[in-house]
Amino acid sequence: MWLDDPIDRREAVKKILGVTGSLALGSAVAGHLGFSGSAVAGVNPTRFLVEGTGAREGYSIPELVARVFEAAGGMSRFVSKGDVVAVKPNISWARRPAFAATTNPDVLKAVIELCQAAGAKRVRIVDHTIHDPRRCFAITGAASVARQTGAELVYPRSSLMRDMEIRGNRLDVWPVFVPLVEADKLINIPVAKHHSLSTLTLGMKNWIGGVGGSRWSLHQDINQSMVDLAQFFKPTVTLIDAIRIMTRNGPSGGSEADVVEKNVLILSDDPVAADARAALLFGVKPAELGFVKLGQKWGLGSSDFQSLDLKRVSL
Amino acid sequence: MKANHLVRLRRISQSFFLLLFLFLVVASRLPQKVYLQYSPAVSGQQNLTLDRPVGFFFQMDPLVGLSSLISGHALIKGFLWGAGVLLLTLLVGRIFCGFICPFGTIHHLAGALRPSLKGPEMIKANQKSPGQRIKYFLLFMLLVGCLLGLNLSGFMDPISFFFRSMALAVLPGTGAAMQSLFQAMADSHVRALNLLSHAAEELVAPVFGYEPQAYQTGWFIGILFLVTLFMNRVRPRFWCRFLCPLGALLGLFSRFSFLRLQKAEEKCTGCGLCTRHCQGAATPVPGQEWKRTECLACFNCAHVCPENALSFRLGWSFGRNRGPDMGRRAVLGGILAGVSMPFLGRLDGSQAKTSDARLIRPPGALDERDFLTVCQRCGLCMKVCPTNVINPTVGEAGMAGFWTPRLIMSLGYCEYTCTLCGSVCPTGAIRSISGKEKTEKPVRIGSAYVERGRCLPWSGNAPCIVCEEHCPTSPKAIYLRKTVLDTREGKREFQVPFVDLKQCVGCGICEHKCPVKGRAAIRVIAAGETRSLRNRLLL
Prior knowledge:
heterodimer; A: 315 residues; alpha/beta; Rossmann fold; 10-stranded mixed β-sheet; two-stranded antiparallel sheet; 9 helices; globular; disordered N terminus; B: 539 residues; mainly alpha; 8 strands; 45% helix
């Protein structure tokens, strides 16, 4: 049947281009073609991690976002003129921003505006939500961000899910939300929160929202599934929103009593290091997180974020 | 006013109201771009609502208002519109049938565009026939049933019938057909077709949505609709003449109307054109008595008469007007049937004893007995539900509750803060509640329970926390405990789910998302629903 068709020619060409492109950039390595990460496992000194903290009362979130990107060399390091950029927030639940179940709309908006200022031709907000998309868009504030910035809010639907070869350790062929792979640049903007199976939902977990199909079965090997997907999507950069974090009742939350204000943003081109750093905000040791360990093992990045080009900004 | 002006006015009015009706059917959904008027910054706990008056035609329908009044002792929202229609009918006859009713218009169209009966056959078909009493039988049956607490009017009410047919059969059917076409195009290797498919999908999605909708018995609702359309080939406006209980009600009210058909017998040449074009079989021909209560006020007879022998006038004619030809048997039969229906409906014990565990009513639904006194089975709540969870019942609510709404968690789930169904319900069978009331009171629609034999971790087969992860309450009604279980490979530790009934609201997202498809390992039953004291679970 047509639904079961594997990836078609056009997408195959795109993917190959994507791989060669990223190789040329010298950024992430173990990839679509599935070669093992053993060759590059360990420290990668060319990678960076920026921690931004809003220390002052009443600091401006957009300014903090801008400063964090500046410290990493500016948005123009990641987004070139004419790029189609897909931003992947976590807006899975129809929850108000105050519950910290979803990416802070102010952070989302600031990132989109930076992309636009860097010359992006089009910015798309892409997330395969769990609750009804219309309600998620409206209630999480993603919709008003789209309206204010002119970014395109992609309505997730079965016609935009295409079976692709993940070539992971655990996942083989899986339906993927197409706008994420068709974009020139991909920016991951997860919210940091609690999760009952993987302990925490950070950057790598956010890619569960980038696929369709029977997502519920991914939980049977959640850590490996997350790493496989993170390896497949390979974001240009990850910005973890820890302005407000949800410390229990995750991932959906629903009570402001579960929420703690941290006023922290973590930006990195190393998805494993970003998650490892964010875990500390919850008092969780990175080594206790299955996906961080597996991510390092499969060469996705380093759990030792101290070894990266580390910068701190504070407002 | 001249007859040709009246006919033109009628056509404009019919087109307007038919289009308005169809527009409101389509608009009965959360718009794709709902965010245009919604801002989380100002809203706090603002509820998402529709900004179109999607229940307008129900408010204008006096049968909906009257049956709810008799049965549920409540005036529906906007009942004055219906009262206005009754007043209009008292003054000038069944203008509603001829000028406004969208269901009448669609039958008028079906019968008039390519009539199947020619010349003399049509004249014969348009003779008044005793079958036209059936609608009075139905009206009396429905109203007497209402008096005894069972409101079945929604089955036959033209607005409910038409809305249900469009929302649950015609639109989803068309949508599914288009979807398979677009999918085939998107699947093609021709780039132009891919792009075209995307453009087409964007265009039709605001009307049909992106995903196919499922309604149980939708096929049957669709067939009934097609049959009523087809019957126009046997008799023009078959539905309006023979079946429509609203038509019967308006017929009763038109008895004293000021509208009169003046017949100049001396001009008549007996050509039969007036009868041939008569929509209501109301004997417009000179020489016989005009049946004012059957007249659908289409004004065709005066319009087509080549001799100008017919003309409509307004005038006081009290006392001379004959009442509708209902037939004593139709009235008595209707009363008898109306008396029996509510009692027959209770024989299944669902009101007095225990109702079906699957009968999960929408959040805010009245207690079962009160619910059945007002629910119109119109399908508005089903159309508006963003997750497609609300479906028409088959047998879950018994004969008395056929086609009333029920939540089927395998098709969708109840969104935790969503209150759309109650906000649009035309008769208040589902109360309009706020998201705050729904989540904080809370309004429970049922309770979840785990079937351990099927559950992946409980049966020792695989780790899984999907139900707990999706549980929307805070703290979560579904909680996990680490348990060591025997498996084939020896002892293993699993996180296994439990349900805390004090927290569970029965939203069903756990059942909907459970990886055990078809018959989930965690399921919601109606026990514990707030609306019913009898069904209460915890003290």
